[in-house]
Amino acid sequence: MKRVFIRTFGCQMNEYDSERMYALIKDEYTLCQEPKEADLILVNTCSVRKKAEEKVYGLVGRLKHLKKQRPDLIIGVCGCVAQQEGEKILKRLPHVDMVLGPQAVYRLPEALEKVKKGQGPVIDTEFKPDFHQPLIFPHLNGTRPVKAFVTIMQGCDNFCAYCVVPYTRGREISRPPEEILAEIECLVKQGVREVMLLGQNVNSYGRKEKGFPSFAKLLREVAQIKGLWRIRFTTSHPKDLDHELMEAIADIPQVCEHLHLPVQAGSNRVLKRMNRKYTREEYLAKVEQLRKLCLEICLTTDIIVGFPGESPEDVEETLSLLKEVRYAEIFSFKYSDRPLARATQFEDKVPEEEKARRLAKVHKLQEKITREINESFIGREVEVLVEGKSHSNETLWTGRTRSNHVVNFEGEGDLKGKLVHVLIESCGQHSLRGQLVNILRGE
Ligand code: SAM
Ligand code: SF4
Fold it and tell me: Measured from the CB, is residue 166 less than 6 Å from ligand 2?
């Protein structure tokens, strides 16, 4: 067998695409852990922020000496940077053999064939989604899977002013429901107990396609699959979160009580310039409605600080929104210019040092809120799906609550893949710690 080294940057969608790439070539290649051992190196890239893009150039640049030692080595740059930069990658990194955009990763075998026949380098950045793919996804870390990603749509039509995704992943297309259900059934047969349905905006699933169910109806169909214990999904655009979906979240038992609902900013002026298509008031009203329907729901969000034209007063509005919603966790970023994204042309940029100051303020406030929420779990029994041993401490098991909190706990026997009750005894900033109480399912 030949060997392949795969490095994935960025979001869950990229992780899913990397698993697919491996599934497509696994009869010919086995996974290896070091680039120097590999016959094929695939770097699956992210271009959502400049820093992620720079990391890719750094890593692929360093592979030049390997290619010099072994000219047969094949190097592929895949994903969003590949789409965005296309031919420019070959100019900057002439040792690269394949440049495959996010929708071309499914055509990896054809690209490899061409390179092997000496017809490279191959550049494929065509937007041509192919949802009819092999249904077995070996996990890249080689472990028995407990949870898995399932892509339900490609691309995005929203064109938020800061975002490169509509340009790198193309227009929004939903995957046929029967393909999604078949894939999940197949995963469940392999032992998967939890799926995360993926799309840039899953709330608009099926709206463009004739005869497709709404996302809420799709959730109800997925919930019929026997042996699937938990359903999660990401990402939800607040403008498309409707009552039908809120009801589905509240009353489908398998749907976990966690919603990632990116708000980005707390000020209406900034939200408008970002082209988010909701106001602070509309967002807060939806949060209130959801919390009424689903008392246990736990919210997380994304925040951008330093968007062009953002004033200190706008930042205060973001901070006050964080206090009002009390997210369990946030992912916060300094705004970064992206090619083609509209905000790149905006003139009133916020200086880097000021962005850093604003980010620190957001972090400080959120750390306190997260800590308080984590502490509120102490003394409670929670349901945990056990994913395996903790990476940092082999004597502990690790898993997640329905609210998506990481729990590390002590417990005897092989608990992987089991649904258990854990009594929470203490907490840190990023995880809860406890003791096994009993096994609920999976014995
Ligand atoms: N479709 C999802 C959504 O709407 O939230 C995910 C988009 S993106 C992959 C994930 C997050 O990156 C966004 O929610 C946003 O907070 C952040 N992001 C996107 N473009 C950015 C930029 N130019 N600068 C800083 N952060 C950015
Ligand atoms: Fe980017 Fe906005 Fe689409 Fe999310 S919804 S991928 S932030 S354009």
Answer: yes
